[in-house]
């Protein structure tokens, strides 16, 4: 068979079909070479390619991989709020896959940062599903635009590392639909990732790999997913059950293809189901053939480093800038304190650990640019006790400086795939060093390195400036220098709230679970949805970030465009003499609702680059989903009629202007019956007329008269009408019968 004669599942034997549903080894598909189906490579890479040098043998080595561009992990890149930039990162990652003959790169990971202690927060995008989906889609679209596949992960509810291989995430349908699914849903519907990776954990008691409701009913039937689903490495515990659920590919292989053959022969797997799963694998291979056929391709190392550089610049979030301590003047006498300045922590640990093509620290950058600074490491990058000699040297170095740049943060041992953090605090020795330096010099800028938020409040008074740099990838040194010395203004915005205390987070009461399960008791109130709704003090709110420029937002207008849709316009102006970018954020706040809803939710954002004094008009289209909640009563999205407030601002707590739009609602209503409460009858367009008749007939003496006072109305509101006899004996029976009869008459007439 020629290379261009692409097979279909109909060309394969039962044994060959079965073989396609499991890997060839830890990093390769199991091809059928005799039928022209190659066993292409798939490998790690949420923020760059991690191709292990041992991968040719199918082995795993997390630290020994081919050189590749290390872009900022999602912890940083998410703070860019720049989907176009993220798309460029995706394109670059794909080019490196083409060079290395990798057909599918495993990422991005869009699981929600339910709790900032989550050990894998560094490679996830946000506490907000709208932001996560609308940013990470750039990776998927960018990679796949070059003919290489992505693997959107981890589907679903992988929000902790503790007991991640077996824990049951017990979550309400509403929380799944509003918080933990939407990022996946958006990316599936807009970019069709070629593969999706299921999570390790169970969801409401069922392992993701064996969850037909998850992998077939929701993913394929509801969302229209067209690609294949693979297991996370070792997440498939029952190949037959998983295949029946909709899992196309087991990774790594358990070498049990014979079990699938037997199951197909004895009817435990229907032929059409095995055909669907195997055809998906054939289709995946065919999608990647063109890119994998390119010979002698070499990506532009310097060009990709420049993309990483720009991504790092836009990842940084300026949290504090008292007395305009930043940017630092070129002629300032500078002291640099902290080992991170010399030995940067530029990525997270675990399966995403990349060997960078180049690496330039902040100190290296300053040396290259001819800057004369004094440096002292101050501490070691471990969890060992403080070194008094290093501390004394750092304090002395800082004494006479005009500005002290203190590089603090979390060492690699503090956060990684495989375990969750135990505290939000940075190591105590770093805080004590900061306080000691501050006693000698008040002009301190703290530069943070961390993969998830850290506590700031306990030490913030010791610093005039705080720059949250996250993990910046291989070009972090030059990017930091650009921002700190004012070559470019910081433009990052927080993708997760920084709480005052970890115990303020609503998930802590159920974190990280017990006895094999974790209850998501906070429901939809995750991150700012909780803090803002319940007016909880935070250190820095979701969406926050300072600039060297100043901006104004005005001219906000909201126009209704359909029964439940709207168009938003606003003008943003750079009111300073500094060229910079601002991110305008749109939140929707529901009015009176039948269910508990967050105070507001992000439903649009736009990053705008403006020259000094420049203005731009921006617009947003709000579709029906922007106003909807998931109704467990209707088992569907539901828009209630009424007023909604549209908020336009620069963080969840910095709202510049609001406008109100009145929507018609979607008209959804459930049929009334004896189990419907009196209040539900009264709120229903038809039922309300019948309730009015009950009172009228009572006044006329044709029915027992319901007491009409405030207490009785409140009592009746939550009472199913079949309980009326409890209240009024035979009279209650008569009222219930009357209501049901009248409703039946109306229903019959409507037919």
CATH names the topology of the largest domain as TIM Barrel
**How many beta-strand elements?**
30
Q: Specify the oligomeric state.
A: single chain
What is the CATH architecture descriptor of the largest domain? Answer: Alpha-Beta Barrel
The low-confidence parts are none
Q: What is the count of structural domains?
A: 4
Task: Give structural notes.
With 751 residues, the chain is an alpha/beta fold. It folds into four domains: 15-58 and 68-292, Alpha-Beta Barrel (TIM Barrel), CATH 3.20.20.300; 310-514, Glycoside hydrolase family 3 C-terminal domain (Rossmann fold); 551-663, Immunoglobulins (Immunoglobulin-like), CATH 2.60.40; 678-750, no CATH class. Helix content is 30%, strand content 21%. It is built from 20 helices and 30 strands. Strands 12-18-17-16-13-15 form a six-stranded mixed β-sheet. Helix 12 crosses helix 15. The longest helix is centred in the last third of the chain and has 27 residues, at 724-750. The chain is globular and about 95 Å long. The mean pLDDT is 95.
